[in-house]
Amino acid sequence: MKINENFQNLKDSYLFSTIAKKTKGQDVIRLGIGDVTLPLAPSVITALNKAVLEMKDQATFKGYGEEQGYLFLRQAILDYYLEKEVTLTVDEIFVSDGAKSDLGNILDLFSADNTVLIPDPVYPVYVDTNLMAGRKIVYLDGNIDNNFLPLPDDGIKADIIYLCSPNNPTGAVYDKSGLKTWVDYALANDAVILFDSAYEIFVRDEELPTSIYQIDGAKKCAIEFCSLSKTAGFTGTRCGYTVVPRELNRGGFILNDLWLRRQTTKFNGVPYIVQRGAEAVFTSDGLKEIKANINRYRDNAETITKTLSQLGIWYTGGTNAPYIWLKCPGQMTSWEFFDYLLEKEGIVGTPGSGFGANGEGFFRLSAFGNKEDTIKAMEKFKKIF
Ligand code: MLT
To answer: Ligand 1: residues within 6 Å at CB?
Structure first.
């Protein structure tokens, strides 16, 4: 018996587990992990309750569900995409328990000897899941000079490319021309883009894309991952969706067929009750309610960005994203600043270096905290800086 020795290449614990351990049981202001604080929308609660009652009756009880997710939910997601001027078919949509699982699981489709291109800094799941599989990773520098929106380097031949826009952790968002450059690169290199769109609802600038399929050619090279976690407060309820276009094929395989084969083998779907709650998110009342919550998180983001501007601290993000990415004051490293804020002020953020080498010297604050805590944290910032 041999274990997967690639695990040796991982850090001892996942970034957010390390932070959770460090701060467990402490009475602190939590602006670290992007966990939502506002409750589920009323329309979602009504739908969940109704679905629970359906499970009580033989006539409406549900056992195993439809393999890709119930048609009622996939249709609602398809209609949501139509609003973005993206036309899909229901068999291109796969309901999941969230973007994180699918971003890791999708790797079952790809050979271990593919080269993976990952912008740095970035959501650590992309790196860790590929390290576990022993894949070669090439990093692409995100930095202040390129506004943390790196573009492809024609000298690098990559097979799998991760993009996250609006970006976690920097809050930066690719414009259409940036994404077009990536789509052209992927098509020229026969590569596949894994596009993490979990924060799309935070985009307010109408010129910015909220789906990679708003870019010509993307259906031939991209898989898109979305989640209701940040959009509709489902971090604890669990529901997301992944789009695998039928046009996407490589090496004689249609990736949509492979993903269906993978999912039907290893995944039994999201509970019916949760899918009914998710369906309610996409109704006109549901969308109104979740957008009201998003506006409250935007207010938090504004509280943070206004304070940082007043204090002359460099930052990016917060306008079209729920994360604010700032430069640690006084040349502190990311973890030094983390410890300083935690020990002196009882504020938890996320050290930038946890998102990659290029995150060293930076720090991420989340706008998902509650309003009072966010205001309190910024008052403390004003006192210390
Ligand atoms: C984050 O804080 O980066 C996210 O909450 C992590 C996640 O969505 O898994």
So the answer is: 33-35, 100, 123, 168
Phi, psi of 231, deg, nearest 5: -70, -45
Report the C-alpha gap between 11 and 379 in whole angstroms. Answer: 34
Residue nearest to atom 1 of ligand 1 (CA): 34
> What amino acid occupies position 146?
N
Enter the tokens of residue 316.
Answer: 């990016």
For residue 37, how far is its CA from the centre of ligand 1 (angstroms)? 13
- Non-local (6+) Cβ contacts of 298 within 8 A are 202, 204, 367
Give pLDDT tens digits for 308-320.
Answer: 999 999 999 999 9
pLDDT in tens, 309-358: 999 999 999 999 999 999 999 999 999 999 999 999 999 999 999 999 99
Of 50, 86, 21, 22, the C-alpha closest to 277 is 50
Question: Long-range contacts made by residues 152-155, C-beta under 8 angstroms, separation at least 24?
Answer: 152/117, 152/181, 152/182, 152/185, 154/185
pTM of the full structure? 0.97
Nearest by Cα to 123 from 203, 228, 225: 225
pLDDT at 13 over 90: no
Q: Which atom of ligand 1 is nearest to the CA of 35?
A: 5
